[in-house]
Amino acid sequence: MTAYAPDATGARDDFSEYVAARRTTLLRAASQLTPNPADAEDLLQEGLVKVYGAWNRIADKRVAHAYVRRTMSNHQISQWRRHRVEEYPASDELPDSPVWDPETERVELRTVLHSALAALPHRDRQVLALRYYGSYTDSEIAERLGMSVGTVKSTLWRALRKLRENGAVRTLHADLVAA
To answer: Which of 112, 111, 140 shows the shortest CA–CA distance to 126?
Structure first.
C-alpha cells in the first residue's frame, strides 16, 4: 500500500462518495482562493490528495469539508509565499530619483494635515478652523464658542503645539523647507 492509501476498501469508497457529493462546493471554495479556474481545480486536487491520506484519522466525516478547505487554504498560502519574491521589480527597472510633482505634494500635504487635525480634540479643531480658515479674531472666536479670550488663546496654543509635535507634520514641514 502507498503512503496515501487508507487501510480499508470501505474507507476508499467512503472518500469517493464524499468527493462526489461535495466536489462542487469544494471547487467553489477553491475558486475563492485563486482567480484562475484551472488553478482552482489544481488546488482542489491537492487538497483532496492530502485529506485522502488522512481520511482514516478524521473521526467525524460530517466536518471533513473543513479539513479540505483548510488544506487548500494552507496550500495556497504556501504558493503565494513561494512566488512572492518573483513579483519584485528588478533593481535596474527602478528610477534613479523619486518621481515628484506638485500634485503629489498637494495630495500628501492634505492627507497628512487631515490626519493630524483628525487626531486633535473637537474643541481644538474648532478654534483652529475659526482662526485660520475663518480668519476670526480671538474675541470673535470666544464669542462664537462661548468661552473666554484667554481660553481661546490657550486652546489655540495647545493645538498648534500638538500639530508641531506630530511626527508626520514635522517630517512634511522639513521636506517642504528643504525643497
So the answer is: 140
